[in-house]
Design brief:
Blueprint lengths: L1 H11 L3 E6 L17 E3 L4 E2 H16 L5 E6 L3 H10 L8 E6 L1 E3 L5 E3 L5 H7 L2 H8 L3 E6 L10 H9 L22 E4 L2 E4 L1
Parallel strand pairs: 1-4, 1-8, 4-5
Antiparallel strand pairs: 2-3, 6-7, 9-10
Helix pairs in contact: 1-6
């Protein structure tokens, strides 16, 4: 497929980096650990983070190049994620940096992660964006930590976006369940795509 070949070439040329959004604390899952370290397959010690790292390492081996990855953590979970990655040899990845999303205080007094809206501000503040620009990175794959089906460096999607000269591209599935109709839905509002 032409899109996939184009994506592989972009990866080999070092034009793509990935960001894993891993600032979640796991509170909605009822766990007292970073969401990234949630044991998806406990019998095999596989976590949400390990699955994404293993996929990225596989792609690195296929393209024969170290691919830059930044992992957005929170002040609460950065140390635990750093230790986990070190303990597991970064799953063979050679170019991983962690950066922090700052916490916000709600009117109720509760403190939580600030959400993903300021992602690029924190990436710039951590001086990762200038490094990536110097390396020739032109696009970023953005991966939420709670999607173990995601491919951090999907050659088809990368090539499709590049070949079509799109500003952004994403993979979605059609939701036909009424009860989840508005959760994370892509909608067309007057010719503009929005996420609900």
């Amino acid at each position: 497929n032409q899109h996939k070949l184009s994506g592989i070439n972009r990866l080999k040329e070092g034009k793509v980096a990935a960001i894993f959004l891993a600032a979640g604390t796991g509170s909605r899952l009822g766990i007292k650990m970073p969401k990234a370290l949630f044991p998806l397959f406990p019998e095999k010690s596989r976590t949400l983070l390990s699955i994404l790292c293993e996929k990225a390492a596989f792609t690195e081996n296929v393209v024969g190049k170290s691919l830059p990855i930044a992992i957005m953590c929170s002040e609460k979970n950065r140390q635990e994620i750093q230790q986990y990655l070190e303990k597991n040899g970064f799953f063979g990845l050679r170019n991983v940096e962690l950066f922090e999303q700052k916490a916000i205080q709600h009117p109720s007094g509760e403190i939580s992660s600030g959400g993903n809206g300021d992602l690029y501000h924190f990436l710039e503040k951590a001086e990762i964006l200038p490094q990536w620009k110097a390396l020739g990175v032109e696009e970023v794959s953005l991966i939420p930590i709670d999607n173990p089906l995601a491919e951090p460096f999907d050659p088809f999607l990368i090539g499709f976006r590049f070949e079509k000269s799109l500003d952004a591209a994403m993979i979605a599935i059609k939701n036909e369940e009424e009860e989840n109709k508005h959760m994370g839905a892509l909608v067309d509002e007057g010719g503009e795509i929005r996420i609900l």
